[in-house]
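Morning. Coffee machine broken again, so started the prediction first thing and wrote up yesterday's gels while waiting. Chain of 330 residues, entered below exactly as on the submission form.
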Amino acid sequence: MKPLLVTMGDAAGIGPEIIVKAFRAGALADAVVLADPAVMRRAGSPMTALITSPEDLAAVPPGCLPVLVPPGLPEGLARRLPGQVHADNGAAAARCIEHAVALVQAGQGAGLVTAPLHKEALAAAGVPYPGHTEMLQALAATLGQPLPPVRMMLANEELRVVLVTIHLSLRRAIDAITFEAVLHTLRIAHRAAAGWGQTAPRIAVAGLNPHAGEGGLFGDEELRIIGPAVQAARAEGIAASGPHAPDTVFMRARRGAFDLVVAMTHDHGLIPVKYLGVEHGVNVTLGLPFVRTSPDHGTAFDIAGQGRADPSSLLAALQMARRLSTGVAA
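Came back before lunch.
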């Protein structure tokens, strides 16, 4: 079986630390880490085995963390202090992602599990993407073709939420909520559900405005955009419903009324999931031609390098990636 490819994230964050803790817990037996070996040693890795290809995993001695060093990593990453933004760390995080995507597209990996990166460090390095989702979308694009439509999903044992818009200001996000964007999101969510064993998921669509607009009294996006997109999806055989009042739909889904919730904006959808506990949440990018999961938290610069980081969300992301890559219900 092909290994999972795990990227170290920002070297100044908790990514390397939680990877080492996952390794010590026995959760990386089928995985290769793309990283700077000195950064992994600083994070507490016992011994590292440098490999040049995921196919070398079988030859790694027991007790050694298999590390594949992407070409072009900046030097001296381990000498930079944890918890601080630096352009080199942003560049290194991006290089690990780029190389991991190239490997999985070449058939050398079962999927990607990405440790958190830092958006300011990415920007400082001149990386033209605000986060993982947009970067992976661009890397997955076929030369000369439009970018593949992708969506962010955050999931835990109680709730799965797919977003129409992600890393935009709220003013820009509202403008980005179009009939096509909502319908594309429903199609992507419906298709992706087959990956975790649901061929006909019940998808609830949250409204944008209070009380889902209350018939146009509090905004007309539900009448002009969201409602028609739901109806178009239903005509395609997708079990979508709504728009539902956004202040209650997540509670209803948690109680079993729906399998998925589609939310219009980043915080609308992610606050309910994260409130239930980031330690068990998983970020999944839907619509890519390969599996990608990530912990449901950021770089945690405030505790980086202190040995306090909890690897639970990374463990959940590894488990989800295995399930999705093998087609087992998640």
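The mean pLDDT is 94. Going to sketch it on the whiteboard this afternoon.
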